[in-house]
Amino acid sequence: MTRFTPFGQDLLNSLSNRYGVSTQAVEALIIAVNNGGGSQAQFSHPELGGMGQWSYGGMTMVGDMFNNNLKALVDNLCTDISNALANSQVFEPLPMPRASQTQSQGNGASFMVMNSQNSSWPAELGAPSSTGAQNNLRYAFFPSTRRLAIDLNGHMTVYDTGDHQIGGVSQQQGGDQSIPFTSQYGTVRCADLPVVNLDAPSAPEPSPPPPPAPHPTPEPASQAVSEDEPTPEEPASPTASPTAQPTPASTATPSNEIFALIEQLANLHQKGILSDDEFSTKKAELLARL
User: Fold this and answer.
1) Backbone angles phi and psi of 108, in degrees to 5
2) What is the pLDDT of residues 54-81, one digit of tens each?
3) Using CB atoms within 10 A of its CB, is residue 131 exposed (0-12), middle (13-18) or buried (19+)?
């Protein structure tokens, strides 16, 4: 009898309700996908068209070969099961102290599937979804951290699995470098995976660069403009202060402006603002410009 974890039981029921098939049909696919390492499955169930085959991202074959709806149903079911197997523990390990189940692969070699609760692995790797052992070698796959740990003769090597969804494993002669695992992309060798050094201290996060120094805002060149003097954009007003510098003699001044200025000088003289000498001097200067 298949023993599911609570997650596996929820997966069984949810897939049955979502796709409208019996839990027996879903269970047959879960076992088939698990036996195929998460990347392929061979199954036989009357509700699924009898005998059939499935491969991750590849062709799906069912007994009713022209039933495209059934093919799509099987493909969706197997894809969801494969993703669940790669990220969570679906089956309960059998309560045996050392080994609980023999997992055979295509070349005839086998691994004993271990109870992960009785295995000691680095805590930073998380919880393994599958473990196994054979002779002087044991392995564990940690989907949450995307790590594959292999302990060979007491020497542990940890690999970065990237986006591989590691499923089955088989051992060939020649040590851990020749162990092929199966993923949704097919066979992947440990030698092709980058090694992770768990003892190396994590590199400190680089401190953010200091903010750039603010550029000083250039102050506009101040141009002292007397309230009594006209700005360069404005023409000279005839009411300019009599103390302003006289226009050079080369510049012709209309007579009416000169007379108006003389009247202003007379008013200033009458009010006592200009002395007799100042009034006479300015009046003479203005008359000389006629």
Assistant:
1) 95, -15
2) 999 888 998 888 899 999 999 999 999 9
3) buried
